[in-house]
Every structure is written in C-alpha cells, then in structure tokens.
C-alpha cells in the first residue's frame, strides 16, 4: 500500500464533497464546524448526509451516500466509529476516491473494540481501494480546493504546508500564523494514519510546487526508514520544520492515547534532524516564530543586529537575550553616534546600539532618520525594532502607527532584513489598539514577534540552519 | 555614607510630598503621570511646583519649594538635570528629607556635562544630608504610603517588593503581575543610584516585615562585596529573585547608556546565586511566572504532576514540556482509570495522565469528579489544568467559566497545589472573553500561566530552589 503517493493530488481537487454524519439537530455541535467551514469556503457541490434526513441552512440532508444524485470524490465523515467500516463499503459502491474520518474511538483508546474497529476500517480501505485520511483527525485545509475545517481560516493560499498528526495543533498553527501574515497551501491533520500516513503526505508535498516550507507535527512514525528517506529527500528543497511530540515517557503515553502511535527518543530526533538538515522545533509558538523568520526576515548570513526601540530596561534585556543566544549587538561607531547625537537629545535615550529612543518618541522624522543611519551601517546584518505599547503614555499611544512606519521606512534605506517585536497585552482594551499595530507591521511585510526570547531564538535557529545547509552543500 | 539604612523607613512614610518640575502646559507630557498617580492614590498634602506657576486640576502650582506653606518630607523631581543640584540646596533650606530625581541626562549619557552634573548632585546630597533616589528613575510605588508612579497600579498592598534599576521594568513587572493577583509592598525604581543604591534598599527590605519576596532587577553594582553580603543576609528570609541586566558585552553597553553602571559576567552571577540561595531569573515574564508559583502554587516537594485539560496535541506537548524540564507525569493507575472510564466515554479523550477531556467538555460535573479522582491520587504532588479557549467551539466557550470552576473545585478534594494554564489571544474580540477567564482563575487564588513553557519552567525553578534550600539547611 501507499505506493502511489503522487496520486495524492486528487485529495486536494475533489470535484464534489459529501459530509457524512453531519449533526442536524444541534447547530452548536462541534461536527457542524465542517459544514460551516465548507459553506464559508464555497465548497460546491456539497452534500450533507444523515440517516435522519432534514435540512440545514437550505441544504437538503441526504439519507445516505447512494441517495446523492451526482458523483462523489471525497467524503468527510463524523459517523460513529462502529459504522465507519460500512461507510467505506457504501463509498465504494458510489465510486468515492477518498474518505476523511474525523471520528475517534479507534486504536487510540487502547481498548479492544477500538483496536478491532480500526483494523476493520483499514481492511475496508485496502479492499475497496478508497484512500483514508485518519481516523481521529480534522482532515484537509486547502484554500484553492475550497476545503477547510475552520470557517475563520484564510481563503488565500500561501507557501506553507503543514502535516499534523493533531487536529488541535493544526488549528493552533494556522490560527496563530495567519495573524502574522503566514498563508498555507495544504494543511493535513491525519490522526491515527490507518492508511495514508506522515510519509505519504511528506513525499507528496516535497514535489508539490506551491509548497516551499513543510511543517510537521508527528507523534509516531509508522515506518522509520521510509520516513527518514522522505525527510532526507524533502529537506532543503522545501524547508522542513519538525515538531516531534511524545518524546518523553509521559509524552509517549499521551501520544498513545491521542493517536495510538509510538514515538522515538529525544536524542534520536535531534541527531536525525541535524544530519538531514531539518529544523527541529519544540513548541507551536516557536514554529510560528521560525515561519515568519523564514518567510519575512530574509536573512542571508551574519549575526550582527541593530536594535532600535523604546525603554532602557527593555534595551538591556533584549540585548542580553540576543547575545546570550549567540547573536551580536555591536557598538555603533562614534561617527554615526555623533551624527545621531547632532539632532537627538541624550537625556533618557541610549544611542550606542541598542538605540533607546524613549525620549524622542514623539519626533517620528528623527526616529526614521536614526533608523536609516543604523540600517545603512555596514557593521550590522539586520535590524530589529521593539515596542512595549502597553507602557506608552497616552500621547505616545496615538503615535504608535507612525512609530512603526518610521522605523520600518527608515530601515529600508539600508536594504537590511528587518523584524519587529510588539509586546501584546491580555487586557481587551489594550489589545484593541495593540492588535492593529501588529497588523500594521504584518501588512508592511515585517516578521512580527511577541517576546525578546521569541525573536532571538528564531533568528538564531534560522541562522544555524542556513550555516548547517551551507556547510553541508560545501562537503 | 549609606550606613544608616534602617532609616529608609522614612522614605515610605512621607508626611507631605512636593512635585517639582511638574508640566503645567501639556497635560499629555509623561511627567504628568506622577501628578495623576499621586492624586489618584490620594497622596496628601501634595504640592506641585513650577516656576511658571498656575494651576492643574484645582491644585495651585507653587513657584518654588520655599513658597510651600507647610513642611515637606519628600520631593519628586522632574526638573532639568542642570538645575537638579540647586534643587537639593533649596530642599535643604526647606527641611526636605529625601528627593527622588526622575530627571535623566546625567552620567548615563557618557557625556562630560552629564557626568559633571551627577557628581555635583551627589555632592549636594552628601553636603545637605538629603537622601537621593536616582537620578534617572521612576522612584517609589508604595500603596500604604499613597505613593505611586502609575495611576493604574493596585491600591492594595501585598507581600512582594521590587528593587529595579529600570523604571520601565518596574512598571512592566507591576503591570503584568497585578493581573495575576500579585500585590506589592514597596517598588523602588532607583536608576543611576548616585546616593541610595541597590544594597541600601536590599538591606532595608530584608528586615521590612511586610515584604516576604524581594525581586531585584540590577544592571550594575556599586560595591560588590556589600551587595553579596546583603544578598546573603536576605536570601531565604524573604525569598530573593534576581535579574541581572547587562551581563553580555552588548548588554553591558546598554546598561552603561541606561543607568551608567558596570555589570558582572554571566558566570559570576550564576555561581553567586546558587551559593547564596537566590533565584536567578532571565526575563520579566519568567519573574512573573515564578512570583505566582511562589505565592499561589504552594508547592512543598515532589515533581509529579497531574495534568487535566483539553486537546490531544496540547496534552502531548505540555507533557513533553514537563518531562523535558525535569518534572514527572506518571501513569494513572488502572484502578483509577477504570473508575473514570465507568462514566466517561473514551472516543476523543485521553484518560491516562495527561487527562484530555475534550469530548466530555460539556459535562462539568464529570470533569469535576475526574479532577477530584486525579487530585486525590497519592501518585502526584500537584495538579495543572490547561485550556486553549480560542480554539473552543461556541458551545464550549459559554462553559469556560464552569470548566475552570469544575477543575479547581474537583482538585480541592485532594488538597494538592493547583495551577492553571490559559492560552491568551492577540485578538481583542477573543481577549474580551479570555481575560475574564484569567481573572476568574486569579480570583480563585490560582496561579495562572500563559504557556506550557512558562508553567513547566517556573515550577521546576521553584522546586530546584526549595531543594537547594533544604540541602543547604541540612549541611
């Protein structure tokens, strides 16, 4: 099985979709998110199916697959586990090519009945030739195919694909990353992988021309050799980012209960990633930080940062964080310091790199000139701006958009890569003006980060990755 | 100098306060935050001073200190650096005991004039006997004394004090920590420390009965031996948390520009903290996480966690994070698993520890019973609940308060320490229902964290600290 993975293309271009097991009576049931998402994305033709019949939002509910008038390419199923195998048979009779089983209650339960049902499901797939996604997963998000499992996901496509054993982590990454300008080509939440597995998806996406970065969240590997080969073939063509879940004893217990898989050890994964040129990642937040760095910071080489922002204590802490992480914050030459000092008063500012412009915050023209001087200095390789808007005075708060524009326009003079750190707030009233600032940074094409740790660690990881890639290509 | 530090008590009980250099014409100027904060805190009598005269919000502006009718104990000054030394002389003539100079433009500029002015200021303090806070800092927040430099700080007092060389970091910690239930006795932003320095404040707070935790953000030490001795005497009486800023080459350059200090090396600080029993901290977020752990988690010993929350992928990642950090997530015994399984369906849940209750989220009674069973199990030492509210369905969102109550009430059965992780959101519309959830957790007396990294790292740090303290007290 799984030999013909290039044929996975058909998963991402179904001509018609049925939604088997859609909840008719309770519009708040979570299974309704599939229906709502597909409608929102304009997926058509779309056929909801439930033996109870009825209607949702003007859509007729078909009693079974065979009652549907046209052909069905793709079925999204939330039917109970016990009837899942018979749905495959029904799909076979209707000429269905693939079924995504969102349904859980299979081998991941560790219970006899679930294990038996998953074996039956797998056998039904093999017998009929219908390819199965899942069970126990959220399936496919592919904006060009108008497939989505969340109505709020972006409708535009982008260069990132994500293969995630967990549906929650798939939703989590897209939700986080979309706010920071990341768009996706194909996201596959694949769960228990009773038929199609991580290697199938990885092999397919390696050659998929719309994907230039593949993110992986994998809890367990069905065939270690095949997966290593797939990683090796993929790595560096698209960039590959890998989170391996369940690497600890307790974590492995969670993965066994989550998707019924067995995970490898921490050391195994570290060694494998280094060897293959895969970026190893440890949390969803880190994955997002690395994605925006790869996509929007456009680093080449060089670890020397120019830092421009607000707050003396903040300046010290971000600089310490950069240097502890292995980046450099070199001293601005006296000549450039004098140049800035000529029009900038010194009290309450720092003009050495880091630049703390706290006391000249209301003069955006000067800020922009200073950013321009710093960015044109050949002693640095990239610029990072940092803002703590929650602490700004009311007068400064009104200038925050201009400040972001001032730093980023000024920095453009040096044609250096530029990133921006904006400290978010928990408080709704603060979030209401900080979120638009983040959006402004994102709309300007900047990678936006939320913490000093996050920006320093992501830049360092990406630079290490590029260095590793260069040294591998030289040998 | 600085011999009589017990006398610092007078700083925190001024009978009258003058505000020298208050901005009269521009109500949005940042110096107005002092006036607004003191009025908001009911600081009285309060005398604004500016040679221009006039009135603000019904307060008469006095032309100079000597024009003020009564005695003045304490002056908060935002006058320009060049007139700072003469203000000390004026204060002397008026019988002032202490002056806080917010004003910057002194030695931290690295420029000749600033260095000269700071020397003059220091000499004026020495000559007159007036104790000086600063210059280049935000001064004192002490709710019982009705002193504050931010109007929005809490008016209730609490067990934490903070000695911070940086005003921004002082504001940052109070602002973050107040949302998580932390209240402060005394916060001192002390800047360039031309007179009173970190050791003076530390020595005073060590014996101050309202303070049981001292946080320190220090960029440079005036007298290393005295500071080590002060740390040694303090450590463990109150708990001491220390962030050392400027430990890298670039960071040291920033501290030189920020508060004109010289910092020690990373290794020096690590060794010193281990030896003295001080908790070394590396960011403001980490400091807040450790504070809520010390204050509200009430750990004793033992690294074994019971984890209860929502999301399979989240369960795997939090468990991995705990175990990688050095905590344990032991397997729930079969007997207890059977007990929970008897009333909990298995599909989509994990019942092994971690407990993923995703599919029974709408039955709060069951959730509470399960939390109660887990918390009473003698195989764990503490319980952590975790929620990703942004990803919840609309039906679940309405239940989130009940879910927090269910987990925390259930967990009370086992009398185990309990913490809660709530993933925040950037989006104002999400923050508007997530922030009240955080407040609910805080109001229930729970330590609330915002990331898996944050909770695991803080618990591990506090357990290491307790172990270190026990082993030190045994030898």
Describe this structure in words.
2 copies of one chain form a homodimer. With 475 residues, chain A is α/β, with parallel strands linked by helices. The first copy, chain A, has helices at residues 32-40, 84-94, 112-128, 167-178, 198-206, 224-234, 249-259, 266-276, 284-297, 312-325, 334-341, 364-376, 394-397, 400-412, 428-443, 452-474, and strands spanning 17-20, 46-49, 55-56, 59-60, 74-77, 98-101, 131-133, 139-141, 160-164, 184-189, 213-218, 239-244, 279-281, 305-309, 350-351, 355-356, 382-387, 418-422, 448-449. In chain A, strand 3 and strand 4 form a beta hairpin. Chain A is elongated, with a radius of gyration of 25 Å. The two termini of chain A are 36 Å apart. The interface between A and B is large, with 95 and 95 residues.
Q: How far apart lie the N and C ends of chain A?
A: 36 Å
Number of strand segments of chain A: 19
Quick one: overall form of chain A? elongated
Range of strand content of chain A: 15-25%
The neighbouring-strand order within the major sheet of chain A is 8-10-9-11-12-13
Rg result of chain A: 25 Å
Question: Which range best describes the helical content of chain A: under 10%, 10-25%, 25-40%, 40-55%, 55-70% or over 70%?
Answer: 40-55%
Number of helices of chain A: 16
Structural classification of chain A: alpha/beta
| Oligomeric nature of the chains | homodimer
């Amino acid at each position: 099985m799984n030999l013909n993975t290039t044929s996975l293309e058909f998963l991402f271009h179904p001509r018609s979709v049925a939604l088997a097991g859609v909840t008719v009576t309770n519009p708040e049931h979570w299974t309704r998110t599939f229906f709502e998402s597909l409608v929102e994305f304009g997926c058509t033709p779309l056929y909801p199916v439930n033996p109870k019949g009825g209607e949702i939002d003007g859509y007729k509910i078909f009693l079974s697959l065979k009652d549907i008038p046209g052909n069905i390419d793709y079925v999204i199923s939330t039917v109970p586990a016990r009837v899942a195998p018979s749905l495959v048979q029904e799909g076979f009779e209707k000429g269905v090519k693939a079924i995504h089983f969102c349904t859980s209650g299979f081998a991941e339960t560790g219970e006899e009945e679930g294990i038996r049902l998953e074996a039956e499901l797998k056998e039904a797939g093999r017998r009929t030739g219908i390819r199965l996604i899942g069970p126990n997963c959220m399936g496919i998000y592919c904006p060009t195919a108008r497939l989505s499992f969340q109505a709020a996901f972006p409708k535009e496509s982008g260069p990132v694909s994500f293969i995630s054993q967990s549906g929650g982590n798939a939703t989590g990454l897209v939700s986080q990353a979309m706010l920071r300008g990341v768009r996706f080509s194909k996201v596959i939440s694949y769960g228990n992988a009773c038929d199609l597995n991580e290697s199938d998806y990885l092999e397919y996406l390696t050659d998929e021309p719309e994907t230039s970065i593949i993110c992986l969240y994998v809890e367990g590997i069905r065939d270690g050799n095949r997966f290593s080969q797939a990683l090796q073939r993929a790595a560096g063509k698209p960039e590959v980012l890998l989170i391996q879940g369940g690497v600890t004893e307790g974590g492995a217990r969670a993965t066994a209960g989550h998707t019924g898989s067995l995970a490898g050890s921490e050391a195994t994964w570290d060694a494998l990633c280094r060897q293959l040129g895969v970026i190893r990642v440890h949390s969803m937040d880190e994955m997002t930080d690395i994605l925006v760095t790869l996509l929007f910071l456009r680093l080449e080489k060089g670890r020397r940062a120019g830092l421009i922002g607000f707050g003396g204590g903040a300046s010290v802490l971000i600089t310490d964080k950069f240097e502890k992480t292995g980046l450099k914050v070199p001293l601005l030459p006296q000549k450039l310091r004098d140049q800035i000092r000529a029009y900038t008063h010194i009290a309450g500012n720092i003009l050495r790199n880091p630049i703390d412009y706290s006391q000249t915050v209301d003069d955006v023209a000067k800020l922009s000139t200073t950013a321009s001087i710093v960015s044109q200095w050949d002693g640095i390789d990239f610029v990072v701006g940092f803002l703590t808007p929650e602490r700004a005075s009311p007068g400064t708060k009104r200038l925050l958009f201009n400040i972001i524009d001032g730093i980023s326009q000024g920095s453009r003079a040096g044609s250096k890569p530029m990133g921006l750190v904006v400290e978010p707030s928990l408080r709704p009233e603060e979030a209401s003006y900080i979120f638009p600032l983040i959006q402004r940074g994102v709309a300007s094409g900047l990678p936006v980060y939320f913490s000093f740790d996050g920006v320093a660690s992501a830049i360092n990881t990406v630079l290490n990755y590029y260095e590793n890639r260069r040294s591998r290509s030289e040998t």
